[in-house]
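Page 47, continued from p. 46.
Same chain as before, 294 aa.
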Amino acid sequence: MPLIIVSGHPSSGKTYRSQQLIESFSYKIAESQNPRHKTLNVVHINDQTLGLNRSVYREAKTEKDARAAEYSAVKRALDRDTIVIADGLNYIKGFRYQLYCEAKALQTPSCVVHVGTPIENCKETNTSLLESPGDGLPTSSYPPDVFSNLISRYEEPNGMTRWDSPLFTVAHSDPHPPCDAIWDALIGSSTTPKTVKPNQATVLKPPSASDYLYLLDKATQETVTAILEWQKDHMGESGGDVRIGNEVLELAAPVTLPQLQRFRRQFISMNRQDALPKERIRNGFIEYLAGNLS
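Result:
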């Protein structure tokens, strides 16, 4: 069933908005006369349910482990009768793209709920939580240095991209999220569940050839090399269209080798076991780069 990706600045009220969604959806399920709705349940995943302390966002390694924990929990929870609310920071567009691909691979819809609380309000809330930790959960506040760092790195959702749409923005002054609109977009009133047609880059298939890992490594390395060669031939340019085989990757800005190698390692890790069709490896990697670099 659907995946709701909640995103926002630290201490913006994401969990509060998630609880409002849970209350609304639980009421709809209980009151519905639709037999399909009666089988639904709601699962809420965030740092508290995963037992994560907010200090994990201070270091790159521990933050990476925290994202992996959220991703694994979402992957385990997604099934035909479960509405999953991923209430993490989800501030990196590449991570939101991974969650989107996971939902699409299971042919279930997803959306992003952006909690649009102004930074000053977030800072006031976080300071209040730091000064009175007994008022909330032990892990509900962010250390000041972690808070500032996360604010500066936040990548706001863009409803024009397929992995951030449909996008529902909840203003700080809104008393409730648009619960009805979100329910209609993801669940609807039909007795038939809404499905999403997966593309070949997100369909999970078992490894089919002994040379798969070699081809995965080779195609991704050739793509990285092609991008670097293009940039070498277009020194001083702010970006442009890079043609790689029959595909075109639009670069909005120059990209470094360490960035490309990081995305390459992530893509290989994601697809090492759940193999792409061999003819789709290169295009799948290009799509993954587009999702992270746009």
